Amino acid sequence: MALTEDSSLILKSQHGDKRAFGQLVEKYMQRAYFTALGIVGSHDAALDLSQEAFVRAYGAVGRFDVEKNFFTWYYRILKNLSLNFIRDQKQHARSFSEIGEERVQQMQDTTSDTAKIVEQNETKELVWQALHALKPEDKEIILLKDFQDLSYKEIAETLDIPMGTVMSRLYYARKALKDKLSKVLL
Amino acid sequence: MSKQLSPAERKKFEILLTKALDDELNTNEKGTFEKYLSDYDGCRIEWLEFKQLKEVTKDMKLKSPATETWDYYWVSVYNRLERGVAWTLLSIGFIIIFAYSGIKAIEALITDPGIGAIEKIGIQLLVLGLAILIVSVVREKLKVRKSDPYKEVRR
User: Fold this and answer.
1) CB distance from B18 to chain A under 8 Å?
2) Considering only CB atoms, which chain A residues are within 8 Å of B84?
3) Residue A25: predicted pLDDT
4) CB within 8 Å of A17: residues ≥ 6 apart
5) Cα B7 vs. chain centroid, distance in angstroms?
6) pLDDT at residue B155, as a whole number
7) Which of A38-42, A60-64, A165-169, B123-127 has the lowest mean pLDDT?
8) Domain check: are A131 and A176 in the same one?
């Protein structure tokens, strides 16, 4: 079986070649950073967590099956680190989501005429807040598709789910977001 | 009265709607989707609502950091890896020195003729208890590590 570029780099990394691992890091660093940013919402934390996840991935690379997708494996490490980070920052995270819910609720309470004159930037801010108020799995798939422009295939690989599930999950996630923003978008 | 979709058709429409939003429909699917829109008022309304949402989210992108961030990204990961190795070596060195000093100290206490037999038994029991405790903790950690799917994750 022919080795993919990633598999070959992983094999080298498994033999202690840090430069090969560096190439993997450089290939996925932006995707990793934006994934973390989508979950934690802070530049510094996203940078720190995405780098820490690479360090942990290197520490465990010996146990990685080269036939599997590297980013899917890395993504799980990063996601768990990010969720742990959020749990540690629980107090802060709770107040942020409460503010988000409150703002969306305020918009839902206003008349549709008022909603129509909301400036575009303000609408985006509300969308962002509504997004953060969604269930984590809904937020995750919207971020991957609409904010990171990943294809269905890439999302399926990242989340290790079938393509059909990607589309179905996207539908329900967008529906949840649309419902939260119904008055703003009308 | 407007027509209703069967559950199976509803599922099919949801997938087509998602693909239409992401511009992923092929020619056949496009035809089927357009038929849904013309035959079912509910589908057309839902499509317009989703399209409106997509209009807003399509321009929303996560803010990119300064370009230097990417220039130093790997260097930063590398430094962390290097420091990780340094901390591991330091810890191993510390454990060896600490264990060696401990053994020597206990040896000196046990062989000291000035210390009574009861105290010597006490010291030996203390060391034995400590050794059993360490072995038990290490064994438990190793067992968890073997079966824990989230072993790479900090708790």
Assistant:
1) yes
2) 55, 59
3) 95
4) none
5) 37
6) 44
7) A38-42
8) yes
Residues A50 and A106 in one domain: no
Total domains in the fold of chain A:
2
Q: Do A123 and B58 touch (CB under 8 A)?
A: no
Using the Cβ of B57 and the Cβ atoms of chain A, whether some distance falls under 8 Å is answered with: yes
**Exposed (0-12), middle (13-18) or buried (19+): which is A25, by Cβ within 10 Å?**
buried
State the pLDDT at residue A111: 35
Q: What is the 3-state secondary structure (H, E, C) of B80-142?
A: HHHHHHHHHHHHHHHHHHHHHHHHHHHHHHHHCCCCCHHHHHHHHHHHHHHHHHHHHHHHHHH
Taken in order A157, A158, A159, A160, the sign of the CA dihedral is positive
Q: Point out the residues of chain B with pLDDT beneath 50.
A: 1, 152, 154-155
CB contact under 8 A, A58 and B73: no
**pLDDT at residue A105 in the model:** 44
CA distance to partner chain B, nearest, from residue A69 (Å): 17
Location of structure tokens 């939260």:
A180
**What ranges do the domains of chain B cover?**
7-57, 112-149
Q: CB of B130 within 8 Å of any CB in chain A? A: no
User: What residue spans of chain A are helical by DSSP H?
Assistant: 5-14, 18-40, 43-60, 70-88, 90-109, 112-116, 120-132, 136-142, 152-159, 163-180, 182-185
User: ipTM above 0.85?
Assistant: no
Of B15, B24, B153, the CB nearest to A80: B153
- What's the pLDDT tens digit per position in B48-89? 999 988 888 877 778 788 888 899 999 999 999 999 989 999
Task: Please give the Cα distance from B73 to A119 (Å, whole number).
Answer: 36
User: Could you give the angle at the alpha carbon of A11 between the alpha carbons of B74 and B144, nearest 5°?
Assistant: 85
- Predicted confidence (pLDDT) at residue A93 exceeds the cutoff of 60: no
Percent of chain A exceeding pLDDT 70 equals 79
| DSSP 8-class letter at A131 | H
Give the domain extent around A55.
5-88
